Amino acid sequence: MTGGNVLTMIPSRPCAEAVAAKGDRIVKVGTNEEISQLVGETTEIIQLNGKTVVPGFIDSHIHVADFGRLLNWIDLSDANSITEMQKRLKTRVEQSPKGKWLLGRGLDPTRFAEKRFPTRFDLDSVSPANPVVFYHQSGQVCVVNSKALESAGLTTLTPVPEGGDIDRDAETGELNGVLRDTATNLIWNVIPEPSEEELLEVACLACEKIVEAGVTSVHWMVLAPIELSIIQRLHTQNMLPLRVYVVVPENILDNMKGFQPTGGSELTVGGAVISADGYLAAKTAALFQPYTDGSANGKLLCTQEEMTNTAEKILKMGLQLVIHAMGDKAVDAALTAIEQVSKETPRKDMRNRIEQAAVLNQGLIKRIKQAGVIVSVQPLVVASEFSVWSATENLGAERARWLYPLKTLLKKGIRVIGGSDCPMEPLSPLLGIKTAVTRKAFPEEQVTVDEALCMYTVDAAYSSKEENIKGSIETGKLADLTVLSNDPKEVLPSEIEKLEVEMTIVGGRVVYSKH
Predict the structure, then answer these.
(1) What is the pLDDT of residues 367-396, one digit of tens each?
(2) N or C: which end of the chain has fewer CB within 10 A?
(3) Is residue 82 one of the residues assigned to a domain?
(4) 226 vs 39, more confident
C-alpha cells in the first residue's frame, strides 16, 4: 500500500505514507520510498491515491446472529406508500414456501401517500397463507395479517396486556392487526426460531455487511447456545471473513465445554457477561433513586452474593469478566463484585469490563479508575437515550449530566471502548465516531476524533488482551486495515459518517473492496 495517509494510532509516529505486509503481518510502515525498496516481482501493490488507512475497526458489542436475521427481513424503511409495501411483500411471498413467517422492518406510515397506518386487510390481500409481521421503525408497534393473528390465537376476546394496546375497528370492534408496545410480544413469542442452517446462512450475510463497514474484528455478544454452534461451523468451514472474540451470557457457561476453537487470532473464546440490571428505556435499569415520575427505580437482577460468586466462576474459567450495568445502583454492585474477586483472588492484568456504565457519579468514576475497569459503550445508544428516551426528563438534569460522561472518563485515564449494539442501532463505526465527537446533550462530554478512533482500535484491542497483535499499524502486528475515502480528522465532524469504506483487509487479505 503506497501513496496514502496512514493513521498508525501510535503517538510516537502518528502518520505514514505506506504499509507493507507479508502473509498476515505488517512488515514495514514508512514512507513511499522506504516501502518501494521491499517490492519484488510478485508483490501486489495497492495504490492508495491519497486515501486514508486506519487500523481495522473493532466493534466491541454486536449481536451478529440477530443482525443476520434482521438482514433477511423485508426492508420497508424507504417505502412511501401502502402500495409499495404490498409490492415488496408480494415479491417475498412468491419466493417463500406456504406457511413461512415473513417479517419486515422500518415501517413509517408518516411517509405513506395514503396517510394512514396499514391494517391486516392490506396484508391479507397479498399474503393470505403466510403469516406476516411488519414492525414500525421504532420497534414498539407492528401490523400483522390475519394468518399471524390466527397463529398466535389472538381474537377480540384476547385480554390486552399491561403496558400495551390492541387496535380495533372503530365500528365493528374487530382486530385490525395493529399491536402496540407490550402487545407486540403476543406475536413475537410465537414466531418460530430459525433452524441452525437458516441461522448459519444469515450469519454469513451479517459478516459480509460487517466487513463492508470497515470492521475487521467483532466482540460477538452471544444470546443463545445455538450461536456457539454457528460460530464453530463458520470457523471450521473457513467462512469467517473477520476475527471473532466471543462473549457469552453467564447462564450458558456450561455450553462452553464443547466449544474449543483452535483459530488463534481468528476466533477467541473471550468473556462472559453478567446482567446486573435492565435498560433505561424500559425503566428497568437499577437506580438508587426513582425515575423522575416516581414510578420505579428498577431492580438488580441478582443479589450481590450471586454476582460475586458468578464473577469468580467466570474468572476461574479464564474468561474476561463483563458485567452489564446501566443504573448507578447496578454499577455500584458490579464494582463491589469486581473489588471483592480482585481482593480474594488477585490476578494480574484482569481487564474486567462494565458494559454500558450509563448512570455514573464522581464516586463511581473514582472506583472505576481504582479498579482498572474498562467501560464499554455504544455511542449511538448514548445519543438515543437523550433524543429518543428523553434522559434529561426521565432522570432529571443532575443525574443526566453524568449519563455516559465519556470525556470525563478519558480524562481520568479510564479506557473506553466503542461498539454498535447492532442491530438495535446502526452498524457503522464511522457513525459511532461522529456521534461521540458531535454529542449534543452535555457537549462538554464530546470526545476528539483521535479519542473516538482509539475507542474502536487500540483501546478495543487492549480490552481483549490483543493490543500486541492489533489495534494499531506497526511492524509485527496483524495486517488488519481499513481504507477510507478521506481522513476523519480532516473533514467536518458532522461529515465523518459520510466517509466511504474503500477497502477492508484482514490478515493481509482483501475481504471487501468498493471497486
Answers:
(1) 999 999 999 999 999 999 999 899 999 999
(2) C
(3) yes
(4) 226
Cβ count within 10 A of residue 362: 11
Does 283 reside within a domain? yes
How far, CA to CA in Å, does 279 sit from each of 127, 243, 297, 356, 381?
36, 29, 11, 10, 11
3-state secondary structure of 220: strand
Structural domain boundaries, residue 88:
65-188
Chain segment 298-317, per-residue pLDDT in tens: 999 999 999 999 999 999 99
Say how many C-beta atoms besides its own lie within 10 A of residue 115's C-beta: 10
Please state the domain count of the chain.
2
Would you place residue 43 in the very low, low, confident or very high pLDDT band (cuts 50, 70, 90)? confident
For residue 267, with 0-12 CB atoms within 10 Å meaning exposed, 13-18 middle and 19 or more buried, which class applies? buried
145 and 252 fall within a common domain: no
- pLDDT, position 263: 60
> DSSP string spanning 261-294?
---TTSEEEEEEEEE----TTTT-S--SS--TTS
Is residue 26 domain-resident? no
Whole-number Å distance between alpha carbons of 406 and 163: 33
Instruction: Kindly report the backbone phi and psi dihedral angles of residue 316, in degrees, each rounded to the nearest multiple of 5, phi listed first.
Output: -65, -25
Are 220 and 173 members of one domain?
no
What are the residues whose beta carbons fall under 8 Å from the beta carbon of 68, sequence distance 6 or more? Answer: 199, 201, 202, 203, 204, 205, 206
Q: Please report the pLDDT score of residue 111 as a whole number.
A: 92
**Cell of residue 13, nine digits:** 509516529
Task: Using the CB atoms, write b or e for 491-510: b if 16+ within 10 Å.
Answer: bebeebbebebbbbbbbbee
Assigned C-alpha cell, 355: 458494559
* Predicted confidence (pLDDT) per residue in 92-104, tens digit: 999 999 999 999 9
- Among 340, 404, 411, which Cα is nearest to 371's? 340
Residue 104 and residue 181 in one domain: yes
Do 292 and 364 belong together in one domain? yes
